[in-house]
Amino acid sequence: MTAVSGRWRLGLLLALSTAIMWGVLPIALTGVMVTLDPMTTTFFRLSLAAVVLTPILLVRKRLPNLPKLRSPRLFLQLLAAGLLLSANYGLYISGLERTSPEASQVMIQLAPMLLLLAGIFLFKESFSPAQWIGFFAFASGLALFFNHHLSDIFVSLNDYGIGLLMLCLAALCWTGYAVLQKILLQEFSSEETMLAIYWLGTLVFLPFCDFSTIGQLSGLQWGLLAFCGLNTLIAYGAFAEALVHIEASRVSATIALTPLLTVSIVQFVPIAGITAEPLQFLSIVGAIMVVCGSMTTAIAKKR
Q1: Tell me: the pLDDT tens digits for 2-31?
Q2: Would you say residue 83 lies in a domain?
Q3: Is residue 115 part of a domain?
Q4: Which alpha helices (H) appear in 60-158, and where do they start and end?
Q5: CB 221, CB 31: distance < 8 Å
Q6: Residues 131, 297: contact at Cβ < 8 Å?
Q7: Domain limits at 68?
Q8: Residue 202 and residue 50 in contact, taking contact as beta carbons nearer than 8 Å
Q9: What's 22-76 look like in SS3?
Q10: What pLDDT shows up at residue 87?
């Protein structure tokens, strides 16, 4: 394993930058969806990321190694990873449209937790007792945060409940993508796979786009749309660079703060077009437990 540089202040700043970028993303997406539908918004998000990343990798001579894709196994794995991540993007933004930025950001924390569980069953990894405590704190926190919406799923399935289920499916799709990405990294760099996946996602969402409302976007919304497209590239770059300076567990623990950032911004900063989720005391406790559970699971040592 490559040793970290030890520049913990820089590493912490980069990890916090990633958390902030991901924390404001659902807010920006909600602002764009006042005018654009979710599928068109996602198309622009993926296509902009692809258009920006392609010349960067071209200059650095790090474009995908196309001859490797002649292998049916690698081609199908990359295709499956791209379709799963595209499904994650589509389900996430559709769930966001039906719920709220706070709810979507808390629920999507299922994704890294499911990946940790997948590591136990697929890669024969293990959890320490402290990590299991963190996991159960996380699960309990989810139940508390959504305590006043449980009937929306289990009693009378309404639009909000459907949104929560979409977010759960989005987390599951991301987990499948991440497992395949871990396998693909044995043959491709992360930049190669992401470029291929961005272009694939662009093609996937193109048939579902409605470009008739593009002319109605305000200058602010164009800026938000550009931010959404660049968000993944910038946040990922900061995340990768943070790993150079501090341990992965500390980076993960810092990024686990993302839901609290989203909740705090929406609850305390008035934003036109966004209605804050009515949070009860138990919901606030639940959000804190989700974050603490995620941090504990990330930091606690494995057996």
Answers
A1: 456 777 788 889 889 988 998 999 999 999
A2: yes
A3: yes
A4: 72-98, 101-107, 110-122, 129-145, 150-154
A5: yes
A6: yes
A7: 8-299
A8: yes
A9: HHHHHHHHHHHCCCCCHHHHHHHHHHHHHHHHHHHHHHCCCCCCHHHHHCHHHHH
A10: 95
**Torsion angle in degrees (nearest 10) through CA of 299, 300, 302, 303:** 160
Q: What was the pLDDT predicted at 248?
A: 66
3-class DSSP assignment, residue 108: coil
Domain membership flag for residue 75: yes
* Rounded CA separation 175/198 (Å): 17
What's the predicted TM-score (pTM) here? 0.88
**DSSP-assigned letter for residue 185:** T
Q: How many CB atoms lie within 10 A of CB 119?
A: 17
Dihedral (Cα; 18, 21, 23, 28), 10-degree rounding:
-170
Banded pLDDT at 303 (limits 50, 70, 90): very low
Amino acid identity of residue 50, one-letter, is: A
Per-residue pLDDT, 1: 45
User: What integer is the mean pLDDT of 222-231?
Assistant: 92
Calculate mean pLDDT across residues 46-63: 89
- Please count the structural domains in the chain: 1
Whose tokens are 């077009």? That residue is 273
With respect to residue 212, please indicate whether it lies within any of the assigned structural domains: yes
What is the rounded CA–CA span in Å between residue 246 and residue 224? Answer: 31
Among residues 30, 164, 38, the alpha carbon closest in space to that of 104 is found at: 164
The type of residue at 24 is V
